[in-house]
């Protein structure tokens, strides 16, 4: 379309009214002029006008041709169709309400879930050129270890020798004590290199950030704080720069405040990092920079521009091989030490992808079912509109034009539903986000942006086309003569419409089955986990956490070494036991199922250890989680001691170090011998004394109800210091009641210690299942909705059939059919459809269930119970939904039915 | 008008351009002018004149303006634009070439093959 034509088209599009009146004037002028000429030729005025009109031809069809030639006809037709559609919707408020409500639900759920998927999985991380940011793993596949620590020389190798990184830094993440503010707080801290911020490409909102020019050995004496901490602790003070913040009792000078949206791109133990320090990784407190001193953790890096992930990976693999060759003493061959990179986004969101995709799949299925349901309703209505269609056809409407009209109507409906759905999404997104499990990253970034809106629009239009197409094509096939002759009444359950509706119902049921199978598997997993024996009794246990802090200068540490922490632990337990209502008190360094593992500070939660009298080479692959506990811990938790003894107050510093292991550790490392009395030692320092195994307990699910196979070695907190102190109290009092007293007691020992997570053990177990519960509940809810919609579909179909065939039923009964026969006739129909749908759905589920495997625990993707119960349940619902209309069929009075016909 | 010839497909546009090239005309005037020049030989479906007029205007070959007719009535007058003049010229060329070509073909005698 060239410019002239476009301008003219636009003119008439905008001035549609003027076009109409101009055409009208022109045509009238023409006819009157012609009539006047004819009068002059001798015709009477009346005859002349008549003649002029005949010669002109069909005025309306010529006008129509004018509109077509201007390219504005479709617009006129569209607006007519839309007006017509709106009128129809107003005329059937019941249908309209059901359609718009279900659409609002379907599109709303899709929009909300998609906005989350879009943010978490699709949108790049909010950093400059985020696709070049990678997570760097140092692996020892020979020992089955991933993400092991690395050394300063290895960091230098990344930065210079590899040639693929613009920059790389280790990241230390961990809890820190924030003091010098109103109340001591536990905050998340991050310590990276001085170029951490420039690598990410962050600009501060106040002050400045670290840069390479700030480099000092050891740790910097400055800190950058988050927007959240700045508002919370400093009341958004614009002059905050230069103030002193005390982190683990180190005085740090605040140099800048990060922008509001900034989030450290890494997993923190809880919440978001709020205090950012920097380190030089050489000089005190770092060990000498030799390859064997591996203390650095969690590498992240930025690839050079133009370097792809695959190229970088190939180079790093090659470099690792060179290093293994060049430094054979630092890299023992059996470790197969190597370097792996992964896009940072994948690292952050990879774990939640299956859950989000299952949720997205569920909502897409729901919108399918909703649109099939509406298609069904529309099809029923289309049968009622056969006469209207036939009259239109007879008056010269083309079939294509009629299909367009029907589609306009349904897309109109879907757009209204879609708008309602977007409103629903806006209204409920906050609610959904509140219930999203906290292990889903980037939830703070979730917005309904134009991508999400485009998706919502696409879903609406597609559903409109899906549910509109069947009735539209059907109406275009109307047999002209018969429809008019029958006068629109009871053309019966015609085969074409019938088959179409059958297909719709069958697909609806199949989709419902898929959702139900998914929900069934998730719910079975959840139920299994809820019934799982954690190896301890969580009821009537209250826990509280504190953190003793790790100052940069060890001399300023009031809880230095085993004497410092053990003294604190003893005093703490003495005070805890004195709280009225507390029966027993104990300490652990790692609360079960709470991922509050202190070792996250130093990277690996799992450490290597050696067994006395075993060859050193094979001791390398001995790994266990070391947990420090006080003597009463097993009693408080009511864990079962299988053999040997528990710790006593006498298992303290200076005495023979002792350990307790669990049964799976015993089976794993002492498959044929008795571990009691054997000796183990953590780390590689051969001057450390051996620890004697004195007891074996039954397994405790310490790392999560759905985590198996991590070996645990418990050691005495009075022999092995821990800065992470988790108090466990056996008490019948609720956590909320105990919190002020616990807080008071800890503060009276040291007012600088933060007290956090005062919560019952039951709640901890509950929270550990939050993610699974969320997805199981949501998919379960959708499955319930799907069953409801599908049964409404069956019910509607059969009810419609019964009303359409009442005459036939009357004749059958008049000819001697019994009520049972009639009942069976309709029931058979419902049952046949349900059976087909269920079989199709089961087949599809069976083929795709394995995609859910990563979300399941203790349940196989093809769990026979689920695959048996779901069809039975749905079948029962389908039979009931068919029975109600079928029974109505038997109530047909043959006399009335026949007379009406 | 039994002796009248039906308009050849696609030639109406050309005739309209020619008619208004001789001076601005309203719709009915275009009809009269064509019939007058053709010596009342051509049969034009009167209503179909208007889609053609709007189409030509849409393409920018004629322009329209509201004015007064001979009998002092409000009427829309069409006139040829510069682009229309070029269009008429090339259409005329094409028509003439086509006409002589076809005439030649029809004149062909068996001996010439």
Report the average pLDDT across residues of chain A: 83
> What sort of overall outline of chain A do the alpha carbons produce when their principal axes are compared?
elongated
In terms of DSSP E residues, the strand content of chain B is 15-25%
How can the largest sheet of chain B be summarized? 3 strands, antiparallel
CATH architecture type of chain B:
Orthogonal Bundle
User: Rounded to an integer, what's the Rg of chain B over CA atoms?
Assistant: 17 Å
Low-confidence stretches of chain B: none
State the helix count of chain A.
28
Instruction: Identify low-pLDDT runs of chain A.
Output: 487-493, 597-604
Q: Give me the CATH fold name of chain B.
A: Arc Repressor Mutant, subunit A
Mean pLDDT across all residues of chain B, rounded? 83
Task: Please describe what this structure looks like.
The complex is a heterodimer of chains A (901) and B (113). With 901 residues, chain A is of the alpha+beta class. Chain A is built from 28 helices and 22 strands. In chain A, the strands form 4 sheets. Chain A has a 6-stranded mixed barrel with strand order 3-4-9-6-8-7. A 6-stranded mixed barrel of chain A has the order 14-15-20-17-19-18. In chain A, β7 (244-247) and β8 form a beta hairpin. In chain A, α18 (561-578) packs across α22. The longest helix of chain A is centred in the middle third of the chain and has 37 residues, at 399-435. In chain B, α1 packs across α3 (49-58). Chain B has a 3-stranded antiparallel beta sheet with strand order 2-5-4. Chain B has a two-stranded parallel sheet with strand order 1-3. Chain B contains 4 helices and 5 strands, in the order βαβαβαββα. Chain B has helices at 12-21, 27-37, 49-58, 82-107, and strands at 5-6, 25-26, 42-43, 62-68, 74-80. The model of chain B has no long low-confidence stretch (mean pLDDT 83). Chain A binds chain B through residues 4-5, 8-9, 22-23, 25-27, 29-30, 32-34, 36, 55-59, 61-63, 65-66, 68-71, and chain B through 26-28, 31, 45-52, 54-55, 57-60, 69, 71, 73-76, 83.
